[in-house]
Amino acid sequence: MDIGNGERRVEGRNAASGRAAGFDVHKDKEPDQMAQFFRSPAMRRFAGLATIVLLIAIAVLSLLPSGDLPPVEGSDKVKHFLAYGSLGGAMAMAFGPGRALRAFLITIGYGALMEVAQALAPTGREFSVLDEVANILGTGVGTGVALALRR
């Protein structure tokens, strides 16, 4: 029963005593507004731009000789996880509803392509299966976060 202002009163019978019981349920509209924001065309455009920037940044950082990379503390695998998680999430947001699997697969393919390019480029870098595993895990988490934010 609607009692105004988005609140409902749920009524029923107490199973043990058979007496009438009721409580108010407050309908919170905040998550709906947040989901609408993440589904908006402006957010999709921003995510598309972020995807392009991330694709370029990942390519540059992947193909530079390891001696030319800026020194950053932390595990190489964590860096891969974060980079590809960001890319997967941005791409899933940019592609829009119903296309998260496509974004996931494209991001994984891009990660594999970068690993192969490292092996072929004369930069002293090599292909690493563990890097690709970190890429896949990061992509899965990033895509999952994008899906959760849009719901």
Automatic annotation (TrEMBL):
Q: Which UniProt keywords apply?
A: Membrane, Transmembrane, Transmembrane helix
Q: Where is this region: Disordered?
A: 1-23
Transmembrane helix found in the keyword field: yes
Its transmembrane ranges are 46-66, 78-96
| Composition bias type Basic and acidic residues, residue spans | 1-12
Q: PANTHER family, alphabetically? A: DOMAIN PROTEIN, PUTATIVE (AFU_ORTHOLOGUE AFUA_3G10980)-RELATED (PTHR28008)
Q: What is this protein called?
A: VanZ-like domain-containing protein
Q: Report the source organism.
A: Hyphomonas adhaerens MHS-3
